[in-house]
Amino acid sequence: MDKEISQAVIRRMPRYYRYLGELLDDGVERISSNELSHRMKVTASQIRQDLNNFGGFGQQGYGYNVKFLYDEIGKILGLDQQHNIIIVGAGNLGQALANYVNFEKRGFVITGLFDVNPALKGRKVRGIEIRMLEEMADFIHSTQVDIAALTMPKEQADAVAHQLVELGVSAIWNFAHLDLELPDHVVVENVHLSDSLMQLSYNIVKKKLESI
Protein backbone atom coordinates (compact mmCIF):
# COMPACT_ATOMS: atom_id res chain seq x y z
CA MET A 1 0.00 0.00 0.00
CA ASP A 2 1.75 3.16 -1.23
CA LYS A 3 -0.61 5.70 0.28
CA GLU A 4 0.43 7.03 3.67
CA ILE A 5 -2.41 6.48 6.13
CA SER A 6 -2.56 8.71 9.20
CA GLN A 7 -2.14 7.16 12.63
CA ALA A 8 -5.51 8.64 13.65
CA VAL A 9 -7.22 6.56 10.94
CA ILE A 10 -5.26 3.44 11.91
CA ARG A 11 -6.28 3.88 15.56
CA ARG A 12 -9.95 3.88 14.51
CA MET A 13 -9.73 0.70 12.42
CA PRO A 14 -9.75 -1.73 15.39
CA ARG A 15 -12.88 0.05 16.66
CA TYR A 16 -14.61 -0.47 13.32
CA TYR A 17 -13.58 -4.12 13.43
CA ARG A 18 -14.92 -4.56 16.97
CA TYR A 19 -18.27 -2.87 16.25
CA LEU A 20 -18.73 -4.80 13.01
CA GLY A 21 -18.05 -8.02 14.91
CA GLU A 22 -20.80 -7.09 17.35
CA LEU A 23 -23.15 -6.39 14.42
CA LEU A 24 -22.35 -9.82 12.99
CA ASP A 25 -23.12 -11.42 16.34
CA ASP A 26 -26.47 -9.59 16.29
CA GLY A 27 -27.26 -10.98 12.82
CA VAL A 28 -27.00 -7.62 11.02
CA GLU A 29 -26.16 -8.12 7.34
CA ARG A 30 -25.79 -4.54 6.13
CA ILE A 31 -25.45 -1.10 7.65
CA SER A 32 -25.24 2.48 6.39
CA SER A 33 -22.49 4.88 7.41
CA ASN A 34 -25.15 6.91 9.26
CA GLU A 35 -26.24 3.90 11.31
CA LEU A 36 -22.64 2.95 12.02
CA SER A 37 -21.88 6.53 13.07
CA HIS A 38 -24.62 6.43 15.73
CA ARG A 39 -23.09 3.31 17.25
CA MET A 40 -19.49 4.48 17.10
CA LYS A 41 -19.99 8.16 17.94
CA VAL A 42 -18.00 9.06 14.81
CA THR A 43 -19.53 11.13 12.01
CA ALA A 44 -20.74 9.32 8.89
CA SER A 45 -18.44 11.57 6.86
CA GLN A 46 -15.45 10.48 8.95
CA ILE A 47 -16.34 6.81 8.47
CA ARG A 48 -16.56 7.24 4.71
CA GLN A 49 -13.27 9.16 4.61
CA ASP A 50 -11.52 6.53 6.74
CA LEU A 51 -12.72 3.61 4.64
CA ASN A 52 -12.01 5.42 1.36
CA ASN A 53 -8.33 5.31 2.32
CA PHE A 54 -8.55 1.56 1.69
CA GLY A 55 -10.96 1.48 -1.23
CA GLY A 56 -14.35 2.46 0.22
CA PHE A 57 -16.19 -0.90 0.39
CA GLY A 58 -19.69 0.69 0.33
CA GLN A 59 -22.41 0.95 -2.32
CA GLN A 60 -24.55 4.04 -2.86
CA GLY A 61 -28.04 3.40 -1.50
CA TYR A 62 -27.04 0.06 0.02
CA GLY A 63 -24.43 0.88 2.63
CA TYR A 64 -21.90 -1.69 3.78
CA ASN A 65 -22.11 -5.46 3.75
CA VAL A 66 -21.17 -6.13 7.38
CA LYS A 67 -19.46 -9.50 6.87
CA PHE A 68 -17.49 -8.28 3.84
CA LEU A 69 -16.37 -5.08 5.59
CA TYR A 70 -15.47 -7.01 8.75
CA ASP A 71 -13.31 -9.42 6.73
CA GLU A 72 -11.67 -6.64 4.71
CA ILE A 73 -10.76 -4.60 7.80
CA GLY A 74 -9.41 -7.80 9.33
CA LYS A 75 -7.10 -8.15 6.32
CA ILE A 76 -6.06 -4.49 6.57
CA LEU A 77 -5.14 -5.07 10.22
CA GLY A 78 -3.28 -8.26 9.34
CA LEU A 79 -5.69 -10.45 11.29
CA ASP A 80 -5.86 -12.99 8.47
CA GLN A 81 -2.29 -13.96 9.38
CA GLN A 82 -0.82 -15.63 12.46
CA HIS A 83 1.54 -13.56 14.60
CA ASN A 84 3.73 -15.43 17.09
CA ILE A 85 4.35 -13.50 20.30
CA ILE A 86 6.82 -13.95 23.14
CA ILE A 87 6.35 -12.18 26.45
CA VAL A 88 9.48 -10.97 28.21
CA GLY A 89 8.61 -10.44 31.85
CA ALA A 90 6.45 -13.15 33.42
CA GLY A 91 5.20 -11.18 36.40
CA ASN A 92 1.56 -10.28 37.03
CA LEU A 93 1.08 -8.31 33.80
CA GLY A 94 2.96 -10.81 31.64
CA GLN A 95 0.96 -13.72 33.02
CA ALA A 96 -2.29 -11.79 32.59
CA LEU A 97 -1.46 -11.24 28.90
CA ALA A 98 -0.59 -14.92 28.49
CA ASN A 99 -3.95 -15.87 30.01
CA TYR A 100 -5.96 -13.63 27.67
CA VAL A 101 -7.37 -16.18 25.23
CA ASN A 102 -8.97 -13.59 22.92
CA PHE A 103 -5.56 -12.81 21.44
CA GLU A 104 -5.51 -16.20 19.75
CA LYS A 105 -8.95 -15.59 18.23
CA ARG A 106 -7.34 -12.65 16.41
CA GLY A 107 -4.34 -14.67 15.25
CA PHE A 108 -1.91 -13.60 17.98
CA VAL A 109 -0.40 -16.78 19.40
CA ILE A 110 1.77 -16.59 22.51
CA THR A 111 4.57 -19.09 22.07
CA GLY A 112 7.04 -18.18 24.82
CA LEU A 113 7.35 -16.60 28.26
CA PHE A 114 10.65 -15.37 29.67
CA ASP A 115 11.81 -13.94 32.99
CA VAL A 116 14.92 -13.43 35.13
CA ASN A 117 13.39 -14.76 38.35
CA PRO A 118 14.64 -18.34 38.97
CA ALA A 119 11.58 -19.01 41.16
CA LEU A 120 9.39 -18.82 38.03
CA LYS A 121 11.47 -21.23 35.95
CA GLY A 122 9.45 -24.18 34.68
CA ARG A 123 6.08 -22.84 35.79
CA LYS A 124 3.36 -22.94 33.16
CA VAL A 125 0.81 -20.30 32.25
CA ARG A 126 -1.99 -21.73 30.09
CA GLY A 127 0.38 -24.49 29.07
CA ILE A 128 3.26 -22.14 28.20
CA GLU A 129 6.42 -22.83 30.16
CA ILE A 130 8.28 -19.90 31.70
CA ARG A 131 11.90 -19.93 30.56
CA MET A 132 14.85 -17.92 31.81
CA LEU A 133 16.00 -14.86 29.86
CA GLU A 134 19.28 -16.51 28.88
CA GLU A 135 17.26 -19.11 26.96
CA MET A 136 15.56 -16.45 24.82
CA ALA A 137 18.21 -16.24 22.07
CA ASP A 138 18.15 -19.98 21.38
CA PHE A 139 14.33 -19.94 21.40
CA ILE A 140 14.18 -17.11 18.84
CA HIS A 141 16.76 -18.82 16.63
CA SER A 142 14.70 -22.00 16.56
CA THR A 143 11.16 -20.53 16.55
CA GLN A 144 9.48 -17.87 14.42
CA VAL A 145 8.89 -14.81 16.63
CA ASP A 146 6.97 -11.91 15.09
CA ILE A 147 6.28 -9.76 18.16
CA ALA A 148 7.90 -9.40 21.58
CA ALA A 149 5.84 -7.98 24.43
CA LEU A 150 7.96 -6.25 27.08
CA THR A 151 6.31 -6.42 30.50
CA MET A 152 9.33 -5.77 32.65
CA PRO A 153 10.79 -2.88 34.69
CA LYS A 154 12.10 0.01 32.60
CA GLU A 155 15.60 -0.52 34.01
CA GLN A 156 15.86 -3.76 32.05
CA ALA A 157 13.55 -3.06 29.12
CA ASP A 158 15.89 -0.95 26.97
CA ALA A 159 18.73 -3.50 26.98
CA VAL A 160 16.31 -6.38 26.33
CA ALA A 161 14.64 -4.47 23.48
CA HIS A 162 18.00 -3.95 21.77
CA GLN A 163 18.84 -7.63 22.28
CA LEU A 164 15.54 -8.60 20.65
CA VAL A 165 16.30 -6.37 17.66
CA GLU A 166 19.75 -7.95 17.30
CA LEU A 167 18.04 -11.37 17.34
CA GLY A 168 15.84 -10.32 14.42
CA VAL A 169 12.58 -9.40 16.17
CA SER A 170 11.13 -6.42 14.32
CA ALA A 171 8.00 -5.60 16.35
CA ILE A 172 7.92 -4.64 20.03
CA TRP A 173 4.77 -4.28 22.15
CA ASN A 174 6.19 -2.16 24.95
CA PHE A 175 4.51 -2.01 28.37
CA ALA A 176 7.62 -0.73 30.14
CA HIS A 177 7.51 2.82 31.48
CA LEU A 178 9.86 4.31 28.89
CA ASP A 179 9.78 5.20 25.22
CA LEU A 180 12.19 2.94 23.36
CA GLU A 181 14.62 4.36 20.82
CA LEU A 182 15.15 1.61 18.29
CA PRO A 183 16.13 1.44 14.57
CA ASP A 184 13.56 2.72 12.09
CA HIS A 185 12.81 -0.75 10.71
CA VAL A 186 11.49 -1.85 14.11
CA VAL A 187 7.78 -1.30 14.75
CA VAL A 188 7.10 -0.22 18.35
CA GLU A 189 3.72 0.15 20.03
CA ASN A 190 4.09 1.82 23.44
CA VAL A 191 1.35 1.04 25.95
CA HIS A 192 1.46 3.41 28.92
CA LEU A 193 -1.22 2.16 31.31
CA SER A 194 -0.55 4.97 33.79
CA ASP A 195 -1.14 7.59 31.05
CA SER A 196 -4.57 6.10 30.38
CA LEU A 197 -5.37 6.13 34.08
CA MET A 198 -4.29 9.78 34.40
CA GLN A 199 -6.53 10.72 31.46
CA LEU A 200 -9.38 8.97 33.26
CA SER A 201 -8.54 10.91 36.42
CA TYR A 202 -8.60 14.19 34.50
CA ASN A 203 -12.03 13.42 33.06
CA ILE A 204 -13.35 12.48 36.52
CA VAL A 205 -12.19 15.84 37.89
CA LYS A 206 -13.63 17.65 34.87
CA LYS A 207 -17.03 15.99 35.35
CA LYS A 208 -17.05 16.92 39.02
CA LEU A 209 -16.27 20.55 38.22
CA GLU A 210 -19.02 20.65 35.58
CA SER A 211 -21.56 19.39 38.11
CA ILE A 212 -20.76 22.13 40.65
Notable features of this structure?
212 residues; alpha/beta; Rossmann fold; two-stranded antiparallel ribbon; 46% helix
Short structural summary:
By secondary structure, the protein is an alpha/beta fold. It is built from 9 helices and 9 strands. The chain is globular and about 60 Å long.
Describe, in plain words, how this protein is organized in 3D.
By secondary structure, this protein is α/β, with parallel strands linked by helices. It has 2 domains: 7-76, Arc Repressor Mutant, subunit A (Orthogonal Bundle), CATH 1.10.10; 83-195, Rossmann fold. It has helices spanning 7-25, 33-40, 44-52, 66-76, 92-98, 102-105, 136-142, 154-166, 193-211, and strands at residues 30-31, 64-65, 83-88, 108-115, 124-125, 128-132, 147-150, 171-174, 187-190. The chain has a 7-stranded mixed β-sheet, sandwiched between helices. Strands 1-2 form a two-stranded antiparallel ribbon. A hairpin with a 2-residue loop joins strand 5 (124-125) and strand 6 (128-132). The radius of gyration is 20 Å and the shape is globular. The mean pLDDT is 93.
